[in-house]
Amino acid sequence: MSRTPSTGARPERTRSSTGEAPGRASGWWFRPVPLARIAVFRTIAYLFVPVDVFLTTAWVRAHAGVPTEYYQPLTIGRLLPLPTPTSTVVHVVQWALVVAALLAATGRAPRLLGTAVFLLYSEWMVIAMSYGKVDHDRIAYLVALAVLPTIGRVRWRDRRTSEAAGWAMAAVFVTVMLTYFLAAWAKMRFGGWDWATGSTLARAIVRRGTVLSDWTLEVPGLLVAAQWAMLVLEFAAPLMLLVWSNRARVALVVFLLGFHLAVFASVGIIFLPHCVAILSILPWERVPDAVRQLRERTARGRPALAQQSAGAAPPG
């Protein structure tokens, strides 16, 4: 194994013709993936932070004006000496998080800045969820922020493969899967079979429905069937870990994002941090080459277009 000083990435194994690392089998958790995949996804993940802070969870800033006695920290907030979210603390965490994320998106100092982003975002979530409301759509994104700093410096065109990168992407993939599986488990734990046979979706559409979903209230049995379908798909979520090929990964991401877009169109709820984590499944290493090929085709087409324009010009 070797280490390339120019990138600072962790030692990696090169693939054999079968796609596995030479020597002993690395297993599913450490199956090497291209470092370019990490580079592209890391940029996406860090650029999402300001979007989340200023748009998706802009309401967290309102906690700066909430009396501190209403602060009931999550378990991690009770175990660690985290500060009580005063106005100063909330605004310092907010702006430090945004600045750190924008710097981390450049790829510089990936371990230092990436760790800072993870810690600051974790504190932002403690501030967000310690007032009686806990969302389940952020765990996979938090795991992504936690594992990305472990890879080190990589570039968009880095063609090497790495077991460390494979482990990081596998950790995010498993957490994405568990988000669905544990959601189904929670439905059964707290709602029982009444969740599937009751009026769960009907109530949601009555409260938050759109013109695209209101009609479903008039179709007997449709929403109950949709509830059973959701349970079956969520309990079957571990099967997504069997996806191997890049084409199957793209199809899986399209299906998952399509599901979340359908939910948004129906009741106006979108799990954006989770959707960002889903993007880690895609073979992003193909993007730099695709962009390069597009530029080359455009460059080759310009002379031909110029010749056609010159030939079509009227005689002087």
Automatic annotation (TrEMBL):
<feature type="transmembrane region" description="Helical">
    <location>
        <begin position="166"/>
        <end position="186"/>
    </location>
</feature>
<keyword id="KW-0472">Membrane</keyword>
<keyword id="KW-0812">Transmembrane</keyword>
<feature type="domain" description="HTTM-like">
    <location>
        <begin position="30"/>
        <end position="287"/>
    </location>
</feature>
<feature type="transmembrane region" description="Helical">
    <location>
        <begin position="112"/>
        <end position="132"/>
    </location>
</feature>
<feature type="transmembrane region" description="Helical">
    <location>
        <begin position="138"/>
        <end position="154"/>
    </location>
</feature>
<protein>
    <recommendedName>
        <fullName>HTTM-like domain-containing protein</fullName>
    </recommendedName>
</protein>
<feature type="transmembrane region" description="Helical">
    <location>
        <begin position="88"/>
        <end position="105"/>
    </location>
</feature>
<feature type="transmembrane region" description="Helical">
    <location>
        <begin position="39"/>
        <end position="60"/>
    </location>
</feature>
<dbReference type="GO" id="GO:0012505">
    <property type="term" value="C:endomembrane system"/>
</dbReference>
<feature type="region of interest" description="Disordered">
    <location>
        <begin position="1"/>
        <end position="23"/>
    </location>
</feature>
<feature type="transmembrane region" description="Helical">
    <location>
        <begin position="250"/>
        <end position="272"/>
    </location>
</feature>
<feature type="transmembrane region" description="Helical">
    <location>
        <begin position="222"/>
        <end position="243"/>
    </location>
</feature>
<dbReference type="InterPro" id="IPR011020">
    <property type="entry name" value="HTTM-like"/>
</dbReference>
<keyword id="KW-1133">Transmembrane helix</keyword>
